[in-house]
Amino acid sequence: MTVKIVSLFPDVLGTYGDHGNARILAHLVRLAGRTCELTAVGINDVVPLDGDLYLLGGGEDGPQALAARRLADGSPLHRVVERNRPILAVCAGYQVLGRSFVAEGTTLPGLGLLPIDSVRGRARMVGEVLMTPFAPIGQSLMTGFENHGGQTILDSDCQPLGRVYRGAGNGGDGHDGIVHGSIVGSYLHGPILARNPGLALWLLSRIGVDVSDVPAHHWRLYEERVRASEGALWTRRRA
Amino acid sequence: MDLPLRARLARQTARLIARGLQVTPRFQGETLPGRIALRIDPGFLSHNREVSMLHTQTVLVTGTNGKTTTTAFIRSLLGPSVVSNRGSNLPWGIASALAQSTGATPYAVLEVDEAYVPAVAAGLQPAVLVWLNMSRDQLDRNLEVRRLAARVGESASSVDTLVANASDPLIVANSANFGACVWVKGPPEWEGDAQACPRCTGELTYAETWSCTSCGLQEPASDYEVDGGGQLWHDGVIIGSVHPGLPGNFNLLNALMASVAVALVGREPVWEVASRLSLTSGVEGRFASWWLTACEGTPTLITYLAKNPAGWHANLSMIDTNESELVLGLNARIADGRDTSWIWDVEFERLQRTPTIVTGERATDLALRLEVAGFEVVAVEPSQVRAVGFAAKRAAQKGRNRIVYLGNYTAFRSLIATRAELGAVVGLTGEAVL
């Protein structure tokens, strides 16, 4: 059966190469011998409800606010969550799924799918991130590149995506991202699935796509980036 | 009247340092004199304008891609006495160029980083601002593209005439406050970053021209247009032709915009200026071709520089890869942007899938990107010299004699700096190999 991957609004939330996550997933699905339909949904298009896996990326304040309004209209992602389909949301897209976020100085309502609030951070957080994931994604470490001004606060009983050793992640709690039901949120670009193939495979396993034979060189970028950052593991951990 | 004392001191110190830098190893040679001049006199740019540049007409060139080449076009049209910078486009690079100028010059042409256009324009009050294009570039140290475009628009009150690209919605959306605009259009190019209306984020529709279905923002009628064949159009009539001497549709547009700017400051007809234009080589190795005398078969290496998705796509689209080996180089130093994720915004999927050698400090990132796009990655070789050497070997095996290299900023610069290891001597110009 065809696997349908839906990349939401790469025209406005595609400023940081995050559409690459969709390309990687489609590539892996095809490696698994399945057919894949990759749909890039524009900001003025209707969001399809029959996708298997949804992706949201990063972008600027104005487009982020617009994306939130579009996704509030008819609540397509609420229905995706009801169907227990995975959503990977990065940066601005991650914030949009929460209860509230700040764009252009104004606090705006998010979709309320994640128990998080995003506020303006003290300084922009830009640079390499190294962390240890909590989810069983088959990687002991994760890397990525963050570039955001917002800080995200999780409710106390939430499960972050990982513990940060280098970089800021959510910005205040020493963690990055969230794993909440079928939603994975993170601040990591890179794109995150190019640099962390384990996370890509884990997401695909949740929709019944088994990619047991990922070519070994897919892991080279992960290994190279971890090596470039691993010194951070031995320095004092951030508060 | 002479420069105020402080500005004079700034200038003399900068010159002294520049002279010192000529005899010492090149370290920040293009920016250090200007940095110090601006430290001594923060108003150095406007002091220059008020006194020594009183009769100088200034052209500023900005935009994401093509600044250095377009500035070179304008320089070649205005003759040798023009004050100009070569690639170093932050205020201190501009101050360095001004400090070096002697006596009154009729023209200054300066490329300016987008983020500094309002500050530099306020200081120099240019006759013309050439605004080439806007797309994403080095987001880790720059503003995002929409905010950057708005910032360029803030320079409106300091500029006499804007010469700008009518095809770029981000430019048009931020051009309302300029007193006079000359709109220029080139052959169709990348539109990836501007699919939603930059003013209202409504839907942009593209036909012959673009327009927004919600707020009505639309492409202005172009005053001058160049088509893919180099013909120059005005009011629906062919009035001449453009011969940039460098490859690529984007260079046709760059050349036309340069011609329009020169026509404005020199009060000449655009077609006449355009007919004079021809650059026989690019700047600092851009579009250059080299004979690799240390490699088997002495193949020709053609070197392209591009720094962001739009630039890579434009360069890769024009390269005929059927008869050549392709080498792509990627670094991620500060000048490149530390974040390599932009390579996922290069539409490799729409390009011809050519077997490719990847190189540079971030070759592994490129290898995965290309594999996902369906390319065959022939080799992942972080050393650029070895990668080109390997390409030469492959070319010899296949009876080819051409290698095409495209790299981002520091990758490109380091290959050019180490070209002696390949025995590279300057070969034909970009135009001659096409």
Structure overview:
The complex is a heterodimer of chains A (239) and B (434). Chain A is of the alpha/beta class and 239 residues long. The N and C termini of chain A lie far apart (47 Å). Chain A is globular and about 45 Å long. Helices cover 25% and strands 31% of the residues of chain A. In chain B, β10 and β11 (237-241) form a beta hairpin. Chain B has two domains: 5-276, Mur-like, catalytic domain (UDP-N-acetylmuramoyl-L-alanine:D-glutamate ligase), CATH 3.40.1190; 288-433, Protein-Tyrosine Phosphatase, Chain A (Alpha-Beta Complex). In chain B, the strands form three sheets. In chain B, strands 2-3-1-4-5-6-9-10-11 form a nine-stranded mixed sheet, sandwiched between helices. Mean pLDDT of chain B is 89; it is low at 430-434. The longest helix of chain B has 19 residues, at 5-23. Chain A binds chain B through residues 11-12, 14-20, 23-24, 27, 42-44, 59-60, 62-63, 66, 126-128, 145, 147, 189-191, 194, 217-218, 220-221, 224, and chain B through 136, 139-141, 144-147, 195-196, 201-203, 338-345, 349, 364-365, 367-369, 371-373, 380.
Gist of the model:
Chain A has 239 residues and is an alpha/beta fold.
List the helices and strands and how they pair.
The complex is a heterodimer of chains A (239) and B (434).
Chain A: E1 3-8, H1 19-31, E2 36-41, E3 53-56, H2 61-72, H3 76-82, E4 87-90, H4 92-96, E5 100-103, E6 106-109, E7 116-133, E8 142-154, E9 162-166, E10 175-176, E11 178-180, E12 183-186, H5 192-195, H6 197-205, H7 220-229
Parallel strand pairs in A: 1-2, 1-3, 3-4, 4-12
Antiparallel strand pairs in A: 5-6, 7-8, 7-9, 9-10, 11-12
Chain B: H1 5-23, H2 32-40, H3 44-50, E1 57-62, H4 67-78, E2 83-84, H5 91-100, E3 107-111, H6 117-124, E4 128-131, H7 145-153, E5 161-165, H8 169-173, E6 180-185, E7 204-206, E8 210-212, E9 224-226, E10 231-234, E11 237-241, H9 249-266, H10 270-276, E12 288-292, E13 300-305, H11 309-318, E14 325-329, E15 356-359, H12 363-372, E16 377-381, H13 384-398, E17 402-407, H14 409-417, E18 424-426, H15 430-433
Parallel strand pairs in B: 1-3, 1-4, 2-3, 4-5, 5-6, 6-9, 13-17, 14-15, 14-17, 15-16
Antiparallel strand pairs in B: 7-8, 9-10, 10-11, 12-13, 12-18
